[in-house]
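tool_call: predict_structure(chain=1)
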Amino acid sequence: MSIETQRGEDGLLVLTLNEPDRRNPVGHKARQALSAALSGAAADDAVRAVVITGAGGHFSGGGDIRDQGERSLGAHRERFAVISDVITRMARFPKPLVAAVEGWAAGGGFALALACPTIVASREARFVASFTKIALMPDMGLLSTLPARIGPARARRLILTNRVVGAPEAEALGIVDELAEPGEALRAASALALAEAEGAALPRQFILDWFARDLAEALEYEQTLQPLLLNSADAAEGRAAFAEKRPPRFRGC
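tool_result:
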């Protein structure tokens, strides 16, 4: 997937997940590209704030299922090192970082949005965890970022039931910080990010570091266990069922 970058004269950098025909999956190459873009933005004094969004009317439909085949545990864990890097960069980013969500934010797309300190969503946006549908546990930090926003009990239920949450409910629960009219999430997120950029940067960094203090534990847990699940028979069945558009037949192995 390509990550499209757009810089404005006002110091705003917009990073767009740009594979709209597949609802902008967040695969390994996309995560590498995001990490590189955020690293560059953090060091660039001309960048005052960053917004992450998706092309084609959706934020992201989740991880790239075509990229989730069986690999050695070492190879999987190297990939999860990239996940740990990009999610940590996002949660502790030294400048305002806002997700602008239109349409679906599902699975890894949901986790990617939650890694942003601020989320603006269209009133028609929808959020769902969906990891267990393909016999996986949540990753990309969602085990930390979702309960941090809505509490552990509600987070556990949303993860286990895969219930779709519409934008108005997401705002009420605390998943979303601000709602926008359909098609206006990017504009609203951009205005919010630039407004935040007027504040003092140093205390903002310390505050973000405090709220991200439990994230490293969740990322380490994912890096240890998700590779085992990705190589399981149930995960292979989940991928096949997804591709064939049928209910999975899990066997617990």
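agent: The mean pLDDT is 94. Proceeding to next step.
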